[in-house]
Amino acid sequence: MTDVDVRIGISGWRYRPWRGVFYPPGLPQRRELEYASRRLRTVELNGSFYSLQRPESYLAWAAAVPTDFLFAVKGGRFITHMKRLRDVAAPLANFFASGPLALGPLLGPVLWQLPERLAFEPDLVEAFFAQLPRSTAEAATLAERHDERLDGRAWTTTDADRPLRHALEVRHAGFVDPRFTALARAYGVAVVVADTAGKWPLLLEPTAPLVYVRLHGDTELYVSGYDPPALTLWADRIRRWADEGHDVVVYFDNDVKVRAPFDAMALADLLGVGPPATD
């Protein structure tokens, strides 16, 4: 796996039950990201799913982590769940103007999660894929077209032009369709490998140079952890994808019983891809 980038992390980091269990007792909340970033090499920013964040927040997050860290940024539910991918030119511009480009070299893939009831419509999905910026320069140009809601609080520049990767998580069985796989591959969009305890489709076939994995729970959604055999299964899959030349990011989302950070560290140890030891 020497020629590819494999990172294991968590979806979000600010959870009350984690305090005193994963986070040491007495650790200030403002230092939780700093603490997590010394034990894992990537985090999924999910506050951006619920509302547009501000550039100042992205700058603060970037300042809290090591320089070789990576953030995945979750696209807004206004685009995926409310607009349902229709008429999203202005919302996309607003999203990219809200601050993700302020992460600079720490900006990783953008995750778009579709609602369970949104079925596969080839023309709709292709139109959405066609609007996604493929580089930070394209994203900055798109961000400049933000509407008045972002006036005075927009970030529309990039420190360098870098490739920008996208991943799509689907939850409707209609996406189990070779036409969808072909569309994702044609546009270089990673179809998320989502382990959801059997609730939603598990699509294991890579469609892009990046494989994006979300582990929501082995046997119970958002709750159950991953025992050693389950972690070994995922480690084997990740090694295979890496041997095929894919970069891989993995995010544990089984946060209810504080399993996510410990499962993530255990999987990173199995694969030998954890960060340097930290006091």
Descriptors for this entry?
TIM Barrel, alpha/beta, 9-stranded parallel sheet, globular, 279 residues, 15% strand
SSE blueprint:
Elements: E1 6-11, H1 32-37, E2 42-45, H2 47-50, H3 55-64, E3 70-74, H4 77-82, H5 89-97, E4 107-113, H6 122-131, H7 136-143, E5 166-169, H8 178-187, E6 190-191, E7 193-195, E8 210-215, H9 228-243, E9 247-252, H10 260-271
Parallel strand pairs: 1-2, 1-9, 2-3, 3-4, 4-5, 5-6, 7-8, 8-9
Helix pairs in contact: 5-7, 6-8, 9-10
Task: Give a verbal description of the structure.
This protein is globular. It is of the alpha/beta class. Strands 6-5-4-3-2-1-9-8-7 form a nine-stranded parallel sheet. The protein has helices at 32-37, 47-50, 55-64, 77-82, 89-97, 122-131, 136-143, 178-187, 228-243, 260-271, and strands at 6-11, 42-45, 70-74, 107-113, 166-169, 190-191, 193-195, 210-215, 247-252. Helix 5 (89-97) crosses helix 7 (136-143), helix 6 runs parallel beside helix 8 (178-187) and helix 9 (228-243) crosses helix 10. It contains ten helices and nine strands.
